[in-house]
Structure formats: C-alpha cells, structure tokens
Specification:
The structure is a homodimer of 686-residue chains. In chain A, helix 10 runs parallel beside helix 14 (354-367) and helix 13 (345-351) packs antiparallel against helix 22. In chain A, the strands form four sheets. In chain A, strands 2, 3, 4, 5, 6, 7, 8, 9, 10, 11 and 12 form an eleven-stranded antiparallel β-sheet that branches. Chain A folds into two domains: 2-114 and 184-256 and 543-683, Thrombin, subunit H, CATH 2.40.10.120; 261-528, no CATH class. Chain A has 686 residues and is of the alpha+beta class. In chain A, strand 19 and strand 20 (633-640) form a beta hairpin. Chains A and B meet through strand 17 and helix 23 of A and strand 17 and helix 23 of B.
C-alpha cells in the first residue's frame, strides 16, 4: 500500500485538459485537486481506503460491493446471471422466477465464481521494464517484459498468498502490481424475477429512461462461514438528488482513449464490423435453438441476453467511431501531438516511428482477422475446456517464466476454479454451438486452410461436432479433474474426442498467439509506451490511464440531459414501470413479472427507481455501487445510455450517462414485492 | 352536396404511388379503394356525411367535433386558449386554474369566436378558370381568376345565407366552393388547469411519450339556445387498441408536398431561417415583459406558448428540409416528372416554363422578405385593428369584385366578428409589442426605407408606439364600431393616433400586396396549375391535394415506433404523468397541477392517457377527433412528434406520429380529478 503516497506527486501534474467529470482514476492517483475545485470535496485517505476495500470485482465480468459486515454483496443480476442460470434446472428456473434464501442455509454456492478485493497497489514499472534495453527488437523487448512480469506476479503470490495481477497502465509505460483478497465461495442470496431485472429486454438495453431491477445479492464465504469484510457500504435511505456529487468505484473493462487514429480506424473499419457480423450469426443460431421449446429457451436465454447486449454495445461503439466530427477532433489532437513531438529533438528521437509502427502492427492484426475469430478453441464450452486442459498439463510442466500468461503459478487458483466448476453443460446446445463454430471457420478461412483441414479432416462440421460432443466426458467435473491430474501423458493418450479435437487445434492456436504477441502486441506495446512517455513529457500525467478491468474511481453528478427533442429526467420512478408496461399492453419484453403485478398496490410508486449521472463509467462497471460524499450507497450502476458507448473512445458529459438502480427503489421493491425481511434487516445495518 | 357524386370518378383514378397511410383527403374524394385494400373497410356515404357534419372548424385556428346532440364541442385547450385567456382577469385566471361551468347558465361566451360545419362541396373549377384565356399574362389571368372567385363566393352567400369559401386545390388547377353552417355564439364549458393541458411545456411539445390533457369543451349556441347539430360523435368508452384503424377528420392548415424543389429550397434557405429569427426576437420581448411580474405572465403567457410552439414547429420543418436524402428524393422525383413532360410534346407545350417561372417568382418574393415581415400592420393587436378599420371602410365602399379578398360581402360577417370582438387588450403589452415591431422594421429595412420614414417620421420606435397606444381608443369595441359606421370620412378625419399610423402604412402595405399578388402569387398559381395538370395527365389524381385549412379525412393505425434507441409505446397512461413529474422533482414545466396532486388516489392510473397513430395530420388538425370504424370518438389530436413536422413536405409513417389524448383518459380525469358530473352525463349520451 505504500504506493498510495504517489498521490502527492500526481496531483502536482494534474492540469486542465481533462473534460468535465472525465476519468476512471486509479486509487493511488485520485483526482483530488479537480474534486476540490469543482465540488469543494477532498476525499481523505480513510475515505479512499474504506471505499476501495468495500468494492469487489466479480471475475464473471463485473463489479460489486460489500453492503453488510457479514459479507453480503450487491451487484447486478446480469453480473450474477451465470450463477443464477447454473443453479437453475428445467424444474426450478431461478432466472425467470427469482431466488430468495430465507436463511443462510438456503444460500446457494455459485459454481466457479470468484470475487476480488483490491488490497494493495505497488508501482513495479522499474522491475518490469528494467530488462528492456534500447537496442532490443520489439519481440526481444516483449519477451523480456513478459518474463519480468511473470516473475513479479509469482514472487508476489508466493510471498503474500494473495491473488497478484500485474497491470499495464498508460499503454505499457507504467506497471502496477495489484494484490487481491480473493473469495471463491460465493453464494446466491437474492435475485428478482428476470422480467423485473431485464424489463424492456434488448430493446431498452442501453437506453434511458429505464425501469429495471438489475440487482442481485450474493454472500462471500470464508472457511464455510460468512466473510467479515474489512469495509462495507452503508445504505443511504435518503438517496441522491439532482445535482449531487456521486462516486462510482468499479472495474471498467477496457477503453481506447489513448489509442492512435490508426488503431481507431482499424477498429471502425475492420474489427467492429467483423464482430457485429459474428454476433449476429451467433444470435441467429441461438434464436433458432430457443425456438424449439421452452427448456431450450431456459438453457440459451441468458446467452442470448449477453450476445444482444454485446451486439448493441458494439453497434453503439461503431456509431461513435463513425461520428466524423469526433474522429476529426481525434485526428487534430494526434496531429498536434506529433507536431509537438517533432519540434523537440529528444522526444522525436525517443518516439521514433511509433505511430507508423502501430499502424503497421494493426495491419498485421487485421490481415489475420478471420483466424483471430476462428483459429483457436472458440465459443463452444466443451471445446474451450478441452483446450484449457490440453494447455494446462503442458504449461504447468514448464518452468514458470516459460509459460503462457494465464498458466503461471499466480494465475492457477483462479483458472482451476473455472476449469473445475460444476456449472451444468447442455450437450444438445453444445452440438449446435460447436457445429456453427466449425461452419463459421470453414466459411471465414476456406476449406483449404490448415485449421479447417485439421478440425474437419474432410468431414462436415455437423458430423465432427456431434461426434465430439456426444463422445466426450468433459461435461463431468470428475473427468476434467482426472485428466488434469494425469498430466501430459493422460491428455496425450486420451481417446476423448473433444480432447482429440483440442489437440489438433492447439499448435495452430499457439502459432497464431505467437504471431499476435510478437508481431502485433509487442510492437504496439513498445510504440504505445513511447507515445505515452512523450505525452507525459509534454502535458504531464493529466488524464487517467485507459481502463483495464481493475479498480477505478469515477465521479460525476446526478443529472438529466437533452435528448429525444426534450429533457430526459434524472430519475425514473416505479410509476414509470407500470406506465411503460401498460403502454405496450404488457407485451414482451414489457410484460410485468407476476409479483410486480400482484404487489403493485403495496408499493409507493413515486419511489425513485433508476437514475442517471455523468460519471465516467463503461462495461465492467456493471454492479458498481454509486456512493455519495459520505461514502454511503445511493445506487447501483447497471448500464449506460447509447450515447455513453462513445466513452470507449472519447469522454463527453453532454448526453452520455451512466444508469443506476436507485438505492431507495431497491429497498422498496425488496420489501414490498419480495418481502425479503432478513435481507432488509441486514441492509439496515448493525 | 351534389358534388359528392364525383366520388365515383375519383375512385377510378386512385392508383399506387400513395405511401402507407398518406393523405389528407377531401370528403368528396375519400380513399375508398385504398381503405378497402389495406383494411377491408369501405366508409359508406352515410358514414362520411355523419363524420363531416360532426366535425367543426374553429376559426381561431383548429378543429373540433360535436360530441352531444346539444351542441357540446370537444377541441384542444390550445385551440380554445384565446377564449379562455380573454375570459380571464387578474383576479380569476381560468388559464391556470381551469374552468368548469356547473350549469348552462355558467357557460361563458367566447369573444370573437366562430366555428364552421362543412355542409356543401361544389366543383366550380370551370366558373373560376373560365375567364382565364391562354394569351393572358399571369397578372391578367390572376385578376380574371380573382374576379370570378369573388363572384362565386358572393353569389353563394346571397343564395344560401351560409359562409361560402372558395378553395383552391392542386395548386389552383381545381376550385371547390365550400359552404359552411356558421356558429358565432360559442361558449366555454370546461377547461382543465393549464399545467395539465401543457404538462412539459415547450420542452415536451412535439415530442412523445406525452402526458397531456390538451382538452377543452365548448358549446355552440343558436339564437341563445344550445345548437342542435345535424350530427355528433358518440364517445367510445372502450377506446382504441394497438393496430386499430382510426380516422381523423379535421382541418390541416397547409402543406407544401406539391411544391417544386425551388420553392422548398427557398423555404429552407430564406423563409424558415428568417421566420425563426423573428420568432426568437418576439419571444425575447415577451419573456422580458413576463419577467416583470405575475400579472404580466398571465397576460403574455399564452402568446409565449403559441410562439414557442411555432418556433419548435418551424425548427422541425427546417430540419426536415435539411435532411439531404429526403431532398434528394424530391429532386429525383421532380427531374423524373420534367423528363416525362419533356417526352410528351403536348404536355411540354402546355407546361411551358412553369418550373422556371416558379423559381423566378419565388426569387421576387425572397427579394422583399423583410417587407413581407415588417412592411404592413404586423403583430401589434391595436395597429392590426386600426389597419383593418382603415381598409374596411375603404373596401366596403367599392363594388364587390374590386375589393381585397377578405373584404368581399361573403367574408364580412366573419371579419366583423373578429373586428368587434370584446377580447381585452392590454395597453402596457401593446406598447412593448409595437415598439419591438417598429424597431424590427427599422433594423430590417433600414432608416431610409419609405415604410420606416412613414411610421417613425424621425422619432424613435418607443416614442411612436407609446403615443399611438396611449392615445388610441381602439381598445374599446364602441370606438371601433363608431369608426366603421362612420365610413371613409370618419376614418379619414379621425385624430386617433393609431388610426393615423395605420393610414400612413396602408398605401405601402397595399403596394407590397399588389406586388405579391401580381409578381409572385399569380405566377406561382398559374405555373403550379400547369404542373398539376401535367401530373394528372401522367399519373392520374393519385394523391390528395395540399392542405388548405379545410375539412379533410386522414386515416392510419394506432402504433408505436422505433426511436430513442428502442421502441416508443403506442399508449401512455396516467402512471407516466406521475413518473415524469416525480423524475424532475416536480420542477416546472413538469410540476403537477394542484388537483392532479390531490386527486391522484382516486384515479385508475393504468388508464390510457395519450396515444399515437400514423394518420397523416399536421397543424390545423389540432382538436380533431380520432374516430374508429364505427365513427365513434376514441381520441383527440393535439400534437405530432418532431418527426411528423416533415409531413409538411413529405409523408412518412416510419416514425412520424400524430399524438392524441385518449378518450378514456379524458373521461377518467374529467370524472375523478375535476368531478364534472354534468359534462360526464352529457357525454354518456341520450
């Protein structure tokens, strides 16, 4: 934790060019001066520590927070959806019906779940970059950096017994070692009916006004007993009001604000169109599957929800990149930066051909885009597990520093937690997804591509998929454990057809990965690092680093915005839920869940339900608490509006808004619709 | 009524190119075939007559309908606003507090109001155009047309005692004589609180979802007794549902769908920008006035509402014309038409230089745009009345066929109704508006312009305005009556300073008007008529004529649309009103009216409140009933969304929607908020 003292220095460097309430700030460099200037508020170190230690990261892909001294955690339904889905069966579908544990004993363990609390941040830039010499090629530099990184993580893990993640900041010009307390016994406490969580479905996703209870409660356990977190957030029953300063601690996934124009153009012209076509394809396959019956709908529904979410998110990002004025501003900014670099001989010497190098590397990436999509294990769960097993036994047999990143000792506990998760796997669905994956590969790469030849061997995708899925035992945790325990020999000799398929794919996937690491990532990292250093030299460290799915602090105010020809209100209320449902005559996805229909008369309908703020948050912040100056919980981030999807590339507070469930709405509904008395009592605090 | 038999012929000509539910159809040419094809519904002659005779036109600028056998009429609050405002005083403000006549005796007469019921349509094209010879100049043709038109109207008025209006259709290629039963004793029965009628104010205007009770009830009287209309609409208590076919009889103001590209471009580049700047100027003046106290706010509030409405409407129209793809389609359409005309020698001969003539005439119009705005009597009420008086005595002394249009015998009763209206005039407000008007003239025309010299005579606008307003007696109806009765001599000798001002302006205004009629309108009418005839020859009469503030029948279905990133619901409910108000913390213009706050618990909040359909309606349709196949009332048009403002130029049913108050919502609120028992009973029908 000593690195938190860097705060002082960083503050001196804070200057003007941050826009509005921009910034996903690291906890060792909070925007103290700006907060003081704009809001007359300075978070104390105690405030920062309390917030940081109450914030959790769900490795399932989101954020959350402790909201009681007994390990109770609040997050989004869609962050916990994997667990809720995995605990469900055809007979008992908690996704649609909701779940409420009346007692601790009824809380149900989430297969494969892991949550993390950030306990330490250490600057390790010198250790990571110390081995990189000026004369090295990009590949050599990359190898040196990788070896140092693995050493740093493993040393840390050995020393502390904690989860240790090396985090690359500012395009790789800085490295921090993040240490986490880790909980792998995570249990479901409460989930509302899916209809209430996803009211409006894909149509309303990324829009506002909204009326969603995208909420779930979990509990962290340690040694079979409820965890006692160091810190937890008090529930503010008064909520926030318009104009209030609010904070959002959470784990934004990734942003590209420091990317070069060449990178953004490739994203706009190649990567995003390809990804959108791919998601559309997957959606079609799953929708066809779902159309065949209600149990199919239950099995694939959550995947469809997530795919639709991704599709709409990427569409919004593509739209943001196609916004010519915004891109023109990016171009001008980059031209200005390059002009200023050129004017300073020392900087010009150090930066060298960084911009050209990145453009060339990105071209190399785009040249094999089809293989990036289809050239490895892909989206079939079983093939993914098989691939992990094949690599697990091979990698763990090597010395630590020679392994692929995700198999170093420090990473193994989390990896094993997922690899041996008892989450159910539906073979009929697996056949459908694997068939589609293999068909997609054949279409994208051509019948003569080595990958296609290796996986199909002249047979049809449907034949290969059916044989592999029907013949495999990998849907059983025991089978996976046995293979992992058996080591390289067991995997090599296995006659499991899915393992056989993964063995054929493995060398091709490794070749592609080496290409990516050496020809693309190593080059972009080194060049990006040079640009970042030039930028620091010219401007100081005035902006937050791009997001990396690590804990950040964003802030902003609760406020509506101008859109749809009028003003959009800062708050919605429960009245609005009933209005919108009735306005569509209760047609899907605007039907009301049964309990919301039944309990309407008990609700105080003017209770604030959702609200918006201009805090700088993006995907990965899902489940983040919204807290006030006192550090108390006033809301729960669950989405951003369409306009906020531009935040991946550019900050704007004009119409981009983060959408939260209001803390008052949660209490009102948990009480009057779900009658969750024990939960309410626990939230009331000791 | 014999001309309704033209129906048969018109039907044969109906062909494909109408888009979706396009069309504001005249009652003698309803879209029978199209209705049958799309909806399996054919309105009978009886149905058409019943609807036509239940529809009323408010000369204040809107539509309405009879909803009881005792002359009760339903329209919008904003159509009746002038009356409600004129009946109000500083002590009793019916605009903000609402008005409810508990008995017939309490119903209050609206100063200067007139409503019309269309009783006859006659094709008089031959009579109007009979005097136009091929060799005539445009001016000669215009004079011949005007003389014939005045004769037709006056003959009709003398013969029938009804209001007789000549209506030019299809750019002047057809003329119809519309005869109206006229009611000038119009009394206010019910108006809700202004806050309920205009919830969301200017911000929400032209947007949807909406939550407005833009409703008022009036009663037509004849000989001091409630009128007994030939037809009236039954109230459908079941309302409409999504997908239902609905009809809107009403009086759309004017459209420009048949205009040439040159006309649209002039509208886009000159007329609309000028008008927007002008409205903004007037709004600023009135807002400054209103800021000086609550009584000022009461006096000018409705004018501000109407100006804001116009400003937003014109902004939307300008945006529509700036939509490049839509304009490109217009251009292609016109090019195609011109190509086809050129390919037919007879058509080419007859059409001649019509497109070039229109473009040239429009240029002449635009060259004197500043004078069109400021070169006559303008927006001061008192100067307007003075100008009318000066012309009234002069014109009525001439033989009918030599008079300005609005002073022919047939027009006089309606004109006098307005001229001698006892509506209050506030001199302090008049000084403000007249000062601004004179200042605007000096800025737009320059100090050396004859108009500016004539009105200011070297003094300041403020001096001239103050002297004229303070010195005039024209705010008294008796003074106006005396001058009118005194004839030309009385007006010539009057020392009333406002009359003196009007006398100085009159010759200049007349010169401009002659210029407009001879150099602009006569040319555009004749050329437009030629183009229209060519279009008929090529396509048949497949589209409805442009709107002319005469009765039309539109139709469409109740349906939501895709916007704001999601779907917009077909209906809103009372729940939504309370949601939106609370979402803004009851800040203006989203505060709740006192009664809506108090009576909330008595309301069934799921009652549909507003709804949208794709019926082809625009300004002037305000107050139109929305009726179902049975001819029963299901709603009340009060607005269109922003997207519908494009309907002035192009029909589209993708997102353009007409917004109505739901008939069920009106009943629910009139009952449970306003407790208007007698009204409810009357609506329940005999």
């Amino acid at each position: 934790m000593r690195q938190l003292s860097r705060l002082g220095l960083a503050c001196l460097l804070l200057a003007a060019p941050v826009r509005g309430d921009e910034g996903m700030w690291t906890f060792d460099n909070p925007p103290t001066r700006r907060l003081q200037e704009r809001y007359g508020f300075t978070p104390t170190q105690e405030w920062l520590d309390k917030v940081r230690l109450a914030a959790v990261r769900f490795m399932a892909g989101g954020s959350g927070s402790f909201v009681s001294p007994e390990g109770l955690m609040l997050t989004n339904h869609h962050v916990g959806l994997g667990c809720i889905q995995n605990l469900s069966t055809a007979e008992k579908d908690y996704v649609s019906a909701g779940f409420l544990a009346a007692t601790r004993a009824e809380e149900r363990a989430c297969p494969g779940y892991e949550v993390n609390v950030l306990v330490g941040i250490e600057d390790v830039t010198a250790r990571v970059l110390g081995g990189v010499r000026p004369g090295m090629t990009d590949k050599e530099a990359g190898d040196a950096r990788k070896a140092a990184a693995a050493a740093v993580e493993n040393d840390c893990a050995r020393r502390t017994g904690l989860r240790c993640d090396l985090v690359s900041l500012y395009q790789g010009s800085e490295y921090a070692l993040y240490t986490y307390r880790k909980y792998t016994d995570v249990r479901l406490v409460f989930a509302p009916e899916g209809q209430a969580a996803y009211f409006g479905g894909d149509a309303d996703n990324f829009t506002y006004p909204r009326f969603n209870l995208d909420v779930a409660f979990f509990r962290a356990y340690e040694d079979g007993r409820p965890a006692r977190p160091t810190s937890w957030l008090r529930w503010n029953r008064g909520g926030a009001k318009e104009g209030d300063l609010v904070f959002v601690p959470g784990n934004p996934g990734s942003t590209s604000r420091h990317d070069t124009v060449a990178q953004l153009e490739s994203e706009r012209d190649r990567l995003l169109p390809e990804a959108l076509a791919y998601y559309q394809r997957r959606l079609k396959v799953l929708r066809d599957y779902v159309a065949r019956g209600p149990e199919n709908a239950r099995r694939a529904g959550p995947s469809i929800l997530q795919l639709e979410n991704s599709f709409k998110a990427l569409s919004g990002r593509l739209e943001a990149l196609r916004d010519e004025p915004a891109m023109a501003a990016k171009r001008r900014e980059e031209e200005e930066l390059r002009r200023r670099i050129a004017a300073e001989p020392a900087l010009a010497r150090e930066t060298r051909t960084a911009f050209e190098d990145i453009a060339a590397a990105r071209k190399r990436h785009d040249a094999r885009l089809g293989e990036y999509r289809y050239g490895s294990f892909g989206w079939s769960k079983l093939l993914g597990l098989a691939g992990q097993l094949v690599r697990y036994v091979e990698e763990t047999a090597k010395p630590n520093e020679q392994r692929l990143d995700e198999y170093i000792d420090a990473a193994l506990p989390s990896l094993e937690n997922a690899l041996f998760s008892p989450a159910p796997i539906h073979k009929d669905l697996e056949i459908v997804t694997l068939t589609d994956q293999l068909e997609g590969a054949r279409e994208a790469l051509g019948a003569d591509h080595p990958y296609v030849k290796a996986v199909l061997g002249g047979r049809t995708p449907a034949e290969v998929a059916r044989e592999a899925v029907e013949g495999t035992k990998l849907d059983q945790v025991a089978a996976r454990r046995a293979l992992a325990a058996g080591g390289p020999a067991a995997v090599r000799d296995s006659t499991d057809p899915m393992i056989a398929l993964a063995r054929r794919i493995d060398p091709l996937g490794r070749e592609l990965r080496r290409y990516d690491e050496d020809q693309v990532k190593a080059v972009i990292t080194r060049a990006g690092e040079r640009i970042a250093r030039a930028r620091f030299a010219l401007h100081g460290k005035t902006v937050a680093p791009d997001a990396t799915f690590t804990l950040r602090l964003a802030y902003g105010t609760v406020k509506g915005y101008a859109a749809h020809g009028t003003r959009v209100p800062p708050f919605t209320t429960l009245h609005g839920l009933y209005d919108r449902a009735a306005g569509f005559s209760y047609a899907e996805p605007w039907s009301l869940s049964p309990l919301f229909r039944e309990e309407k008369d008990d609700l105080e309908l003017t209770t604030p339900y959702n609200f918006v703020s201009d805090a700088d948050v993006i995907g990965g912040n899902s489940g983040s608490p919204v807290i006030d100056r006192a550090g108390e919980l006033v809301g729960l981030i669950f989405d951003g509006n369409m306009e906020s999807l531009a935040l991946d590339y550019f900050y704007t507070d004009e119409t981009a808004r983060a959408i939260a469930v209001d803390a008052r709405g949660i209490l009102e509904v948990v009480d009057d619709v779900y009658g969750a008395d024990a939960l309410l009592q626990e939230l009331a605090g000791p």
